[in-house]
Fold Nodulation receptor kinase.
Amino acid sequence: MMERLDHWMLILVECFLLCLFIVIQSACAQKGFLSLDCCADSILFTDPKTAINWTSDYGWFPDRSGCRKISEAVENYTGYPKARLFSTNLGKKWCYNLTTIKDQDYLIRGTFLFGDSLDPLGALFNVSIDVTTISQVNSSDDAEVEAIFRATNYYTNFCLVKGKGDPYISKLELRPLNDSEYIERETSSVLKKVSRVDVGGNIGEQIRYPEDPNDRIWQPPINPDPTAYPYPTSASISINNTNVAVPLQVLQTALTHSARLEFNHSNLDTGDNNYNVYLYFLELNASVQTGQRVFDIYINDKKRVPNFDILANGFNYREVVLNVTANGSLNLTLVKASNGSEFGPICNAYEILQVYPLMVQGTNQEDVDVIVALKNELLVNNQDNDVLGTWSGDPCLPVSWEGLFCQSTSGSYVITTLDLSSSKLRGSIPPSITELTNLKEVNLSNNGFTGTIPAFQASSMLISVDLSHNDLSGSIPVSLTSLPHLAALYFRCNPLLSNQLPSSFNDNSNITTDNGKCVDQGPSRSAQVIVIGTAACGSLLFTVAVGIIFFCFYKKYRGRFDRRGHPMTKNAVFALSSMDDFVLKSISVQNFTLEYIETATCKYKTLIGEGGFGSVYRGTLPDGQEVAVKVRSATSTQGTREFENELNLLSDIRHENLVPLLGFCCENDQQMLVYPFMSNGSLQDRLYGEAAKRKTLDWPTRLSIALGAARGLTYLHSFAGRCVIHRDVKSSNILLDHSMCAKVADFGFSKYAPQEGDSGVSLEVRGTAGYLDPEYYSTQHLSAKSDVFSYGVVLLEIISGREPLNIHRPRNEWSLVEWAKPYIRESKIDEIVDPSLKGGYHAEAMWRVVEVALACIEPFSAYRPSMVDIVRELEDAFIIENNASEYMKSIDSLGGSNRFSIVIERKTVPPTTPTPTEPSPITSQALAPPQPR
Ligand SMILES: *[C@@H]1O[C@H](CO)[C@@H](O)[C@H](O)[C@H]1NC(C)=O
Ligand SMILES: *[C@@H]1O[C@H](CO)[C@@H](O)[C@H](O)[C@H]1NC(C)=O
Ligand SMILES: *[C@@H]1O[C@H](CO)[C@@H](O)[C@H](O)[C@H]1NC(C)=O
Ligand SMILES: *[C@@H]1O[C@H](CO)[C@@H](O)[C@H](O)[C@H]1NC(C)=O
Ligand SMILES: *[C@@H]1O[C@H](CO)[C@@H](O)[C@H](O)[C@H]1NC(C)=O
Ligand SMILES: *[C@@H]1O[C@H](CO)[C@@H](O)[C@H](O)[C@H]1NC(C)=O
């Protein structure tokens, strides 16, 4: 009997708990509020004032190491005084993936309070909703960012994107908007709150939930019109219009004036932006009749609504929605109508929302689904992996996930490169990898991947696959080697993997491969350098002659890459593993006879340039390829050594952004090098030479040239595990092919960076005046950072369109570096930007490039970024510029050419200036991987 009772008791208790649970659930579900107090100590707490239930954000970011206490300086802060700081060496974007209902409207509000003492250098970072960037958070200026949007999916990402500073967040609130009419007309837009004013509200008080069921926060005006006076509050007033969007508590108060009411907002974004203005009116005086209170509504001195009468429709409540384009300020003025109105204007509440069009589509949905699946497959064995930990939000936008590289094709982004090398990953290779249909390059090297290689689909676009240095087993599948586009396959140093390539490989012999031979690359590499370095020109011939057969291969290979012109890095290093391989694979240049060259150049008919090495002639090979032939001049003192140097280096170095060597000639004391002819000449010529007079380079092209050259140099700096230093980076050495792709030329001066134990390293300083690294000059110590300095000068040329040295200018403008520096430090970049670029660039993209340039020309090499960092920054700038251009294009296609120019102006918003006193450390810090704080 007792047992039975116990049993019933238990069921009762269970039922009670269950019911309680359901009650809580439905209470929460009914509202659908999500309120995250970042880093809060207790999991769930209720704000006593609003009864809003808050939770911590550990469900999104379990890591507590980024939690910081908000300093006491933040007054009247309700909630837990903590903020989450996102600062790791990896990752640029952190997203709260929030569950939403598709096509439902939401209000989202992020609060960014950090407190003065811990404020990370007046951090500047971006806030985006999915891929639409809506705001930049600058220290405590914009402590709150609120927007209204329509969910396009069953989840929405609220993302913080690293800018000059590391992002942080203290609160995040999501509120579903039921029956809201905000996004009725413009479905593809995000509305950012500029102002929401309870016009007659008391200073220091605000109205939100539960008075406003949507938890909008209504605040009294910040600078109320001093001549206006509050309308006597009328508690008894009732609204006889049922369709009211504003809480009664807000409408019950108002300001009025006998003649005119004015509300000025002057802190708006500059540039022509669109705003929606919502005005809410309730007649508080019951004795006023229709026609007795009539006024005109002006926005920025333009009459938008004449003779407005609240009572005109038979109700005592009326609202007005106006769209307006404004630049910097928005003034609302209500003026008593001239034709005999008895009472002056009244205003109860208004809102100003900035309209952000959805600028770009996100990543192609198929790619998103696959990469998310791939992430989940990888997570199974790599729970706490640092790289995967940063993968959140849209894979490509606004910045791509660590290790991904994306391209835009017909309006949407696709993933083209997956580089997970050296990411400490284990487990099997995720099969999803084969479903990334746009993937061209995969690098999984230097991980702990085990198991077999998955089967690839024949439709794959893969060009380069690197699986080296893992623990893979089995053999290379036929499906991989028979991929139609595959040009490079590396799988060395997988002890359990069979070196046997499938027979189909032989049919497809234009694949470069390391044959799976695991040899330590470093020493064998330098050994070869010594061999080649000491070999005379003649003895090289033997090695090279064998390589001629690979010329054909090379042409195929090159044609494949050039035709598409993808701006991505090709890991197409010709792997060298043994001396045999070296003979067969490393040299793909051709040995031309003197006669052949003379025919090709029509006996040196067309001189196209002169350099330290000698003269350069234009020619055409029998197969129609146009070439540039460098002929060593008899008087050249640097000849032989540079010739060998360049031959040695160039024959191994292959990169899309480096001018490849096609062949050479070494006959009758004549030394010549043959390169493909670059039909668009040099960057120098394009910037301020003859070509510039015909047509100036636009900014997006300049940016892509800068990025291309940076990628080429990055490749050199990390070539074969050692660093090759160019030593003569300058705009005349950056050539442009037919598609304006930048290729770095002239390796005549290049050198391997000195390594420990090297003796007899030549210390003579080389370079070109105007580009020379002052530290290298004074210490004679050569490092890759000398190239970085010169590259910085090239960036300044690209930005300003000026020569590095010009003694025909006033004395203080002789040196480009010395002239530009003070302007950059004072944030006056307009002074240095090439006048012909005016209005044609995205300010944020320009700023990124200017900052990179400034960091590069740091007098102390230690403060300069590496080329890898530079590429990363420029890629960001490129994406920003690209998005802006896409946006302009889309606007342009809507018609209306004047709109186009409006948008350009909108883009040239001067961003908040960097600290002028100490720009250098901050700038270099911005580029260097952030240090954990
Ligand atoms: C908070 O939770 C309580 C139940 O614990 C519920 O009654 C209340 O409606 C919730 N508040 C909100 C704003 O959802
Ligand atoms: C904090 O609250 C006090 C009194 O409630 C008020 O006087 C003060 O202006 C508030 N400070 C801020 C920054 O809102
Ligand atoms: C708005 O008013 C302010 C202050 O009176 C004024 O400086 C500004 O020029 C006005 N803006 C416009 C667009 O009329
Ligand atoms: C609503 O109130 C106004 C002013 O109090 C009055 O003039 C009007 O007749 C009322 N309308 C209705 C439908 O009750
Ligand atoms: C406001 O919207 C209307 C149509 O809804 C349009 O005709 C008008 O040009 C817009 N005005 C501005 C200033 O954008
Ligand atoms: C966000 O979460 C949903 C599940 O709620 C998941 O399906 C989706 O893939 C996530 N999105 C991203 C980009 O991680």
Q: What stands out?
A: The first strand starts at residue 34 and ends at 37.
